Amino acid sequence: MADRLVEPLRFPPDFLWGTATAGHQIEGGNVHSDWWAWEQEGLIKDGTRSGRACDYWNRYAEDHALMQEHGHNVFRLGVEWARIEPAPGEIDRDAVARYRAILEDLHARRIAVCLTLNHWVLPQWFAAAGGWLAADALRRWESFVRLIARELGDLVDLWVTLNEPMVPVLAGYLSGYFPPNRRSPLQTAGVFRRLLEAHAAAYHVVHELVPRAPAGGPTMVGFAGAYQLVEPFHEGGLWRALERPLAAIIARVSFDAWDRSILSGRVAAPFGFGQRIDGLRDSVDWIGVNYYTRISALLGPGSLSNVQSGGFNAPPGIELNQMGWQNYPPGFHAVLMAAKRNFGRPIYITENGCADPGDEMRRRYLVTHWAQMHRAMRDGCDVRGYMLWSFIDNFEWREGYAKQLGIIAMDHTDPDLRRVPRDSAFLLRDVIAAGALTPEIVDKYAPTAFAGGKP
Ligand code: FCB
Hints:
Elements: E1 9-10, E2 16-20, H1 23-26, H2 34-39, H3 56-69, E3 74-78, H4 81-84, H5 93-108, E4 112-118, H6 124-128, H7 137-152, E5 158-163, H8 166-173, H9 185-209, E6 221-226, E7 229-232, H10 237-264, E8 286-290, E9 294-297, H11 303-308, H12 330-343, E10 347-351, H13 360-378, E11 383-389, E12 408-409, E13 420-421, H14 423-434, E14 436-437, H15 439-445
Parallel strand pairs: 2-3, 2-11, 3-4, 4-5, 5-6, 6-8, 7-9, 8-10, 10-11
Antiparallel strand pairs: 1-14, 12-13
Helix pairs in contact: 3-5, 7-9, 8-9, 12-13
Beta-D-fucopyranose binds near residues 226 and 351.
């Protein structure tokens, strides 16, 4: 790429632009959930708890107004199963009504709804009964999905069955980093299979109950995968050759086995031996791509556990964000092209963003990633929308409130939880208004982003 952007990078007029969130991370008061219980054990790194989070549950209209003011036409949010079904079979009607009001408010503002059915968090009663591994887990899950499809289905433009299913599989059951803190390869394989079944069940239930999207088009159901680029650490030579197989293993275990299973309808190695799952094959109408970073596979002691916690082996000269993740824009193009090759379905970016309290790095990150997304579109990738992670600073799982990923700043200790747009929010607004990333916008918000021919 050139030293600076010379031509505007135009996006289609019907492109969806907005942000992404998850219920537990922003709503507040998700008291019947497994994560809530887990937080009380003091396991969050900075000692915080989700607590009232961003109080989105009560302040959604104010947040939607801000999205509208900034020209967003899509918002990704989740429903919290624990809130809707606090005890087995007991439905909290007020909670359902509140979700309806939230989605209606978005529609009234012409903001399309991308709804995640499960973003890792489970009801406490479900977790206590064995979680995903319990004998009747699928029956319970299916009846929850049925309820959502019936009650809210007419308001959902894009369905995400599961968010990054490999995270609960690996972090919950292999490395013991997320609830339920297991370290069991056998259970890891079991939950992998269960989540494939859960995805397939949700896919078919939604199609059965929701014949078309609110705008009249086909019902669109998919999942959101964590697609990081995995590459050997070394640029060349013998080391690179040796690291290649390690990179392939990491890619296979972290997302590729899931994709292969969806494409073939069978449980892929190393989590299974090709067992067939009913209704799984091709159970995706679109692909949700979450892309943040590159993982560099470095051979050496502890390399696998490093990767599990985020792959902090960065080659020299690569900038790291507040999460310790590499900023690697070309990886975005690479994972998009791979998603196109593998699935041949429409793609929506369901997450992309940068943890940076100062915001200067985030602006560079965003413009360089948008340029790579545009490049992938030029190369034939059918990308139809982009949801930036995240709308607002929020509860970042084990990291607590210590990481700032929002384009709107919020201090969780502020009694008023004031929303303060960062320059990134205005950057996104201006790109949406222009329908393009223009040289003027880059000069204004991130003048050094393309300096030195950096991609
Ligand atoms: C993704 C999660 C999302 C958020 C970002 C930073 O893996 O889906 O909830 O934590 O990472």
